[in-house]
Specification:
Helix content: 55-70%
Strand content: 5-15%
Bound molecules: zinc ion
Structural class: alpha+beta
Number of strands: 7
Largest sheet: 5 strands, antiparallel
Shape: elongated
Length: 350
């Protein structure tokens, strides 16, 4: 096996168990199926192709020696196996002639660039280490409590605002939200550079009808489960910690002042954006966290395709993945109902 090979965990994408593999420092990421993955797991530098075939047969897979050899040859073509199996001149010629098979059988994803770390990444490194995350989590939880306590008062303050000031409050809320989002996305990308050695791409995604800034992380599939979680949770943790700014401004501003009302508006918008981002609607960090735990790709679409029976759900999948796929359709409904209820309660309670 090549020394610098990176093998991600196997994930369920609704139809196949897929694994992303790559060579560290190279842009190409190759997505392989279960057979390639099992062969890779069995390569230990001692077993030959026939022995690997035997083990796979004993596991109940329908393989032949030549199909195992094909898989091995394809993996060699991409450089994942270094000094592998003795190959005769004829088989090398045959392999070359079938180079196109290798290319079309293994789906490759091209990552934008290999990440070069930035000076600020040093900060991220300590923030995503376990002690850093624990501190962050404590701060985030206290911010949630403080925000929940302040929401009713913030709504009351915003309602006192005169028409002329409303425009200012809207502008302040949008600008603050944008700033928080940029910081949030930057930390996702930075954590990804630190743990994955690759660079993310900023893109626009959709949350329902709203356009949303998003970071595309090519090579995310190569990360282990704990590393995936670190890359995902750092974003919301940064956003939640930044709630301190509108919360403090709101608490310290003179009661009944315009500043208090504007800080209240900023706080309300911030809380709404955070609640949506952590909810179980498609394309949110909430869903990414669930996907990282359960190792299911695109959980929302897999869940719905399974629900309408377009996809099957093999019993061989881990229990966690099956439970997630089966129960996901309930989550967005529960989220929407929960958000509406919270909104109604907040408005009515003051
Ligand atoms: Zn995020």
């Amino acid at each position: 096996m090549a020394k610098q090979i990176q093998i991600g965990p196997a994930r369920w994408n609704g139809e196949h168990l897929v694994t992303d593999i790559a060579l560290a420092g190279e842009r190409r990421i190759v997505r392989v199926g279960i057979r390639e993955r099992m062969v890779l797991d069995l390569i230990d530098g001692r077993r030959c192709a026939s022995e690997i075939t035997l083990v796979l047969e004993r596991m109940g897979l329908s393989v032949t020696r030549s199909s195992t050899r094909d898989v091995i040859n394809r993996l060699i073509t991409f450089g994942f196996i270094e000094r592998p199996f003795v190959a005769s001149a004829e088989s090398l010629t045959a392999m070359d002639a079938r180079a196109h098979v290798a290319a079309s059988n293994l789906r490759a994803v091209w990552a934008s660039t290999i990440g070069t770390s930035r000076p600020m990444d040093r900060w991220t490194k300590s923030m995503i280490a376990t002690p850093g995350l624990v501190i962050f989590l404590a701060v985030a939880v206290s911010m949630c409590v403080a925000a929940a306590v302040s929401v009713t008062a913030a709504i009351a303050a915003v309602q006192q605002l005169q028409a002329g000031w409303v425009v200012l409050a809207v502008i302040a809320s949008i600008l603050w939200s944008l700033g928080v989002t940029l910081m949030h996305e930057w930390f996702h990308a930075s954590a990804f550079r630190v743990l994955g050695g690759r660079t993310g791409r900023v893109s626009i995604t959709r949350l329902g009808v709203f356009p949303l800034l998003n970071t595309q992380l090519d090579g995310f599939g190569l990360l282990s489960r704990p590393d995936r979680l670190r890359v995902i949770v750092i974003g919301p943790l940064v956003s939640l910690s930044l709630l301190a700014v509108p919360l403090l401004t709101f608490a310290l501003a003179r009661h009944g002042s315009e500043l208090e009302a504007i800080a209240g508006a900023v706080l309300l918008v911030d809380v709404l954006v955070l609640a949506l981002g952590l909810s179980c609607l498609p394309n949110t960090d909430g869903i990414r966290i669930l996907e990282s735990f359960t190792l299911v790709d695109q959980l929302h679409s897999v869940a719905f395709r399974t629900l309408i029976r377009r996809n099957r759900l093999p019993t061989a999948l881990p229990l966690l993945a099956r439970v997630a796929v089966r129960s996901y359709p309930i989550l967005p409904v529960a989220t929407v109902v929960g958000l509406l209820l919270a909104g109604v309660l907040a408005v009515r309670s003051h």
